[in-house]
Amino acid sequence: MGTPTTTTGPTTETQVPLDDARRGTLLRLATAGSVDDGKSTLVGRLLFDSKSVLADQLDAVERVSRDRGLETADLALLTDGLRAEREQGITIDVAYRYFATARRSFILADCPGHVQYTRNTVTGASTADVVVLLIDARKGLLEQTRRHLAVTSLLRVPHVIVAVNKIDLVDYSQERCDELAADIRGVAASLGVADVHTLPVSALVGDNVVDRGSPRTPWYDGPSLLELLEELPTGDDPDAESFRFPVQVVIRPQSAAGSRHQDADRYRDYRGYAGQVASGVVRVGDEVVVLPSGTRTTVAGIDTADSLATGDELTEAFAPQSVTLRLAHEVDIARGDLIAAAHEAPEVTQDVEGTVAWLGDRPLLPGSRVLLKHTTRTVQAVVRDVVGRLDLDSAELQPAERLELNDIGRVTLRLASPIAAEEYVVARRTGAFLLIDGQDGGTLAAGMVGDALAAVRHPVERPGAYTI
Amino acid sequence: MTTIDLTDTTTGDAAAAGTAGTAGTADSLLPDAALPGEHRLSQLEALESEGIHIIREVVAEFERPVLLFSGGKDSVVMLHLAIKAFAPGPVPFPVLHVDTGHNFPEVLAFRDATAERLRLRLEVASVQDYLDDGRLRERADGTRNPLQTQPLLDAITGHRFDAVFGGGRRDEEKARAKERVFSLRDEFGQWDPRNQRPELWNLYNGRHRPGEHVRVFPLSNWTELDVWRYIARERIELPGLYYAHEREVFDRDGMLLAVGPYSQPRTDAEAESVRTETVRYRTVGDMSCTGAVSSDATGVEDVIAEVGITRITERGATRADDRLSEAAMEDRKKEGYF
């Protein structure tokens, strides 16, 4: 390998993100916090100090900062990309950022803190391995802090890091940081979040964000925020899960435009079920059940484009691989069916009790007709009952007749046809659902099958919790 | 000058993969495969699976999808994922190219050859047609990227496409960083960034009303480096101008523009001098505003090394039209641009 030449601009010492070829090093994180807690600045600091900001981006930030009469570059401008955001100095929508260190690559969802944008926090947290929650050291815990911790608990985000920001504005006070850490532990415990790591940072100055051991916080000797993120274990373990495979499309080369295809003859009788393994592992020869019909068969083959091209047949597939399954028997299977391990199959039901984060502008009322999207299946549904609404102060479910925007509550639904529903607390991918407005198509709610609030009301040590 | 070691010495992968470094051994150079028996995907495998899942969702839930195909590297990778998603069947949708009339001839040739080889239906929406009959007028600065929006929207309406795959990546630009994977457009093709649907888990909501359509970005979570590493891993063929070659160029606004039918150096008082340089392109588009970069990267491994240490973003280095203002891309996107 020759010495690479730079193409444009001066080369500086950089951390080249080529190391990310190592397995399992992609970490998805989401930021959360209230307005003005400094999230965008923290994200900017992470990107800047990990040398993920390129020269032209920095030039632009410095230019705009100067135009506004600022003395130092406003790092929030790195992520606040929309015109309105820069004009109002706030973050409106989830911004996704990509950065890498020598140890890991990161997908970062920078979520706005304003109360009306809580739905974006739900968006960011639904795919996150870790939520980084900011609080302002001067203000302490706010309603939004509780809401974000509740959302994190509800969506079962595996890890939570609380960054006590603006520690420079409380004179780097250990007493204040300890006090807030105790507050957070209390609220987190009441909301069922077992694994919280708290650390003092200054996003503006950079204390404890990337490098550990800020001289201004000698009383904190733990890892920096970036070090914490580099060390967190990721993802689920397919070997500990039951096999679930929602069918996306049926692949039959002969049917659609088959005659134009070069291999039309070779695959004349091919019929495969394409999808992404939602959980677990499947092997050729495994007995499976097709739901909701309940038909049993065995896996005859597992294909990908690569295995078909090379002839090296796959013997197994695991989550989250995209593959195509062939089955031993000709059975009637369509999009929306779930292929599951026969010996540990989920129940099918038309009555679902679920926990929802309501994201619609109009309230959710008993009798509302909606669409429910679960895995690859969309069915009509009617809201039977609103069981209750989570009161964030008491962390209790209070009786309620409706759910308003940003409310979290329990509902019962009656479906027009059955789904293979599983408890979200057991199976995230097959326990999640959307409620959709059948008329304008808008997404109304993030739904979780079962009593996802149980964990909130009865906190337990979560399996796999990460302790520093 | 930074020297970087592409081999991964911190795990056993590099040793397992053998000695790296010679041309054509991209796989061993970039150990990306999980070890047998381990049930965990590498980063590229995870991104590939996510992209295939997205493409299959669209085919299942929409009636008339189309894939925007320019012959540029992102659209080539996206098409590669589409082929993988439906194997051994054919790609079940056509491809659409919005031709500015200022394209690099070798990219157009690549586009046509690819469509022919894969037996794809290729639709072309031509900016030149719009200029010829007066529906559009040439801009003062001569660039045609902003002129693509109208032909694109007309093609979507005319063919009644309801889902449009684009190769946009969130790492490209600040406004794109805010884009959902499934991005709803109203009947005027407009994007309303303040009113986007929440996008939860991998449950994509593609429902839309008649006249509306959905832009879908299967490469949302890929970075420029991921794209190149994937091109190496899959040995994907690209137009030659992505690799170092000699070309007559001149400097304009800090960019190297090729001398060609649509981009001539000024000969007036501020004359721009022409020289032959070894260059390559990081993006391909309208020749009159797409810059080349000085580069000796003749192979995909060299490009990966180069992208890994560059200090300038892909668009910052090569797109004059994004330098117009802080929100140039946002403004174009709101109007229905890619």
UniProtKB/TrEMBL annotation, chain A:
Residues covered by the Tr-type G domain: 24-239
Family matches, as Gene3D superfamilies: P-loop containing nucleotide triphosphate hydrolases, Translation factors
Enzyme class of the recorded protein, top EC level: transferase
Gene Ontology terms: biological process: sulfur compound metabolic process
Superkingdom: Bacteria
EC numbers on record: 2.7.7.4
Tagged with keyword Nucleotide-binding: yes
Keywords: ATP-binding, GTP-binding, Nucleotide-binding, Nucleotidyltransferase, Transferase
Pfam families in alphabetical order: GTP-eEF1A_C, GTP_EFTU
InterPro entries: CysN_GTP-bd, CysN_NoDQ_III, G_TR_CS, GTP-eEF1A_C, P-loop_NTPase, SO4_adenylTrfase_lsu, T_Tr_GTP-bd_dom, TRAFAC_GTPase_members
UniProt-recorded Gene Ontology molecular function terms: ATP binding; GTP binding; GTPase activity; sulfate adenylyltransferase (ATP) activity
Cleaved signal peptide residues: none
NCBIfam families per the UniProt record, alphabetical: CysN
Protein name: sulfate adenylyltransferase
TrEMBL record, chain B:
Bias (Low complexity) ranges: 7-22
Phosphoadenosine phosphosulphate reductase domain: residues covered: 65-291
Gene3D superfamilies, sorted: HUPs (3.40.50.620)
Domain of life: Bacteria
Classification via InterPro entries: PAPS_reduct_dom (IPR002500), Rossmann-like_a/b/a_fold (IPR014729), SO4_adenylTrfase_ssu (IPR011784), Sulfate_adenylyltrnsfr_sub2 (IPR050128)
Keyword Hydrolase part of the UniProt annotation: no
Keywords, alphabetical: ATP-binding, Nucleotide-binding, Nucleotidyltransferase, Transferase
Region (Disordered): 1-22
GO molecular function term, any single one: ATP binding
Entry's Gene Ontology BP terms: sulfate assimilation
EC number(s) on file: 2.7.7.4
Enzyme class: transferase
Alphabetized PANTHER family for the sequence: SULFATE ADENYLYLTRANSFERASE SUBUNIT 2 (PTHR43196)
Family, per entry: Belongs to the PAPS reductase family. CysD subfamily.
NCBIfam families: CysD, PRK05253.1, PRK12563.1
Name the record gives this protein: Sulfate adenylyltransferase subunit 2
Organism whose genome encodes this protein: Cellulosimicrobium arenosum
